[in-house]
Structure prediction request, 322 residues.
Amino acid sequence: MTVLHPQIKTSRRALLLASAGVSVASTLARPVRAAPADSWTSTQPVLQSAGWFSLKAAGATIHVISDGTGAQSIDLALAPRETVAEYLKRSLLSPETLESFRNVFLIEMPGRRILVDTGYGAQKGRAYERLLSAGLSPESVTDILITHCHGDHISGLLAGSECAFPKAMAWVSLEDLESFRLKNPKEAVRKATERAFAPYFIRRAVHYFNEGEEIIPGIRAYRHPGHTPGHTFYELTSAGQTVVFAGDVAHMAALQFARPDISVKYDMQPEQAAQERKALFARAADSGVLIAGTHLPFPGIGHVRREAEGFSFLPVPFRDRA
Ligand SMILES: [Zn+2]
Prediction:
């Protein structure tokens, strides 16, 4: 495997082929230059690029890849509009709409290339195209950690109707998968979940975990239900440092760090989601662990600090050293 250096160089070709009706997946056959085994480590300098943020933490290189952003109504919050608007104004943001972020995380450590969720996939999202543009061979992805089964997290398991990452194992909470694949009241949701996981089931590559199990050396999985029935945090720990990949623990950073008690309409069990949010922020503030969230402002990874009211989010600083 080669060290992943994000550079926009092949996206035009992939886009042209895609617009000509050729599947993006068919452009993946190009050979990926092999690098000496010892260079495939987190000691390599990271090369920053648009829509892509790389850092080293907890013994790994973590890449944050934007899957795109979108306009989000403040009505998403389960709180009076005036309350929400007040917090947005404090952050000098529009009191009407805010930008919603979708971050996909890629963890590189020796012998492993691990995605945390997949974004919307080639049709609707941007992360997959960015991964290809960076020279990532989809076959080189070894594991995919699914925090929960909402479409913005699992749709990218597929590229068109094909398996997007044909050699990867997909890790997911059994409770979450069952609630979306079998028990969801909407047939469209059940079918979409079935479709996304189908090629992984065929390969026997869908894996569940026991609470707190170390599923990959250095990575443990913990259920934190609230946003969804099996919403999962994945914790990467090495050399005394921990990064908690916390999925959809928060959707409106400008509001929910100060007021973690306010949940959003996407939280299936709003009160439990609020408890989990508060507990994570308190733990992060007290212990210094980094948190990484799909919908936190890009790059979506940083520390949490206690404030007079609630908490605040302190993104990791940008570094672009040679
Ligand atoms: Zn989400």
